[in-house]
Amino acid sequence: MADRPPKNDFIARGSKKTSQVGTGLLIVLRLLDIPLQNAILGQGLFSPLLHKVGVQTVPLGPPVAIIGLSPQRAVLLSMAIGSALKQIYWATAIQQEELSSVGAALIALLNTVFNSLNTIMFTCALTSTSVPGEALISRDAPLSSGLFLFGTILYTVGILTETIAEAQRKAFKQNSKNKGKVYTGGLFSLARHINYGGYVLWRGGFALASGGWTWGTIIAGFCFYDFVSRGVPELDNYCQDRYGAAWAEFKRKVPYALLPGIY
User: Fold this and answer.
1) Average of per-residue pLDDT across 23-41
2) Which residues contact 257 (CB under 8 A, 6 or more apart)?
3) 227 with 238: CB under 8 angstroms?
4) What pLDDT score was predicted for residue 13?
5) What is the dihedral of CA 250, 253, 254, 256, to 10 degrees?
6) What is the average pLDDT across 150-160?
């Protein structure tokens, strides 16, 4: 039935209830992530611990005026801020179903852990994409500079894809004429859950810009596997129950679930 929520989802699918506690908790926890990432990048929060276990850290690059961080670190902090603002936007303007306090805490915790691992990886000499002077482009370290820029591009494309896709679907649903209909337009015409695909891209891009190819592949692979094994099947089952033949036809016309041409 359409009222059957996915077993492993963070939100109660089909439960159209206000969740001020859950939404408020998500907002607070995601905002608290910003000073944490700033402390890791700008104040070396975990450097003493890393040094104790024999891990060398990269020195802070010359800071940009006002920002107080080197160009590379400022971009990484911007990614953390962007992720927080994106999820706050989702919780306050996009999400229409019940978000429990437990679900909100888990979403915030997961993203804070990902962000923190990324910024810590950047501070570690062995994994960092840091270049001399931590400028955005460096001829002295073309590989690291290229990885950082490519990761930044992936992040930008991914977070815009996720945000625009969800905004398009929200606008469709707000029209009373579309009640009970499947949204098949906009970016969703490329992949049925392209907002999830966008998340994989920006998560992978953030990790790539911080810790290089290996770390970026691990994080993107983890997110991809989670959606393929949990998120997509659960949401497909829910949509099949709710929309029936219309969803089956959408799956036939749009065979890709996350990213067009890939999966």
Assistant:
1) 98
2) 191, 192, 193, 196, 228, 232, 236, 263
3) no
4) 61
5) 120
6) 98
Place of tokens 């492993």: 8
Burial of 165 (0-12, 13-18, 19+ CB in 10 A): buried
Backbone CA torsion sign across 82, 87, 89, 90: positive
Give the separation between CA 59 and CA 49, rounded to whole angstroms.
15
H-helix or E-strand spanning residue 37: helix 20-43
Tell me the three state secondary structure of residue 146. helix
Q: Which two tokens stand for residue 104?
A: 């909100």
Summarised one tens digit per residue, pLDDT across range 159-196 is: 999 999 999 999 999 999 999 999 999 999 999 999 99
Mean predicted lDDT score pLDDT of the chain: 93
Over residues 184-237, the pLDDT tens digits come to 999 999 999 999 999 999 999 999 999 999 999 999 999 999 999 999 999 999
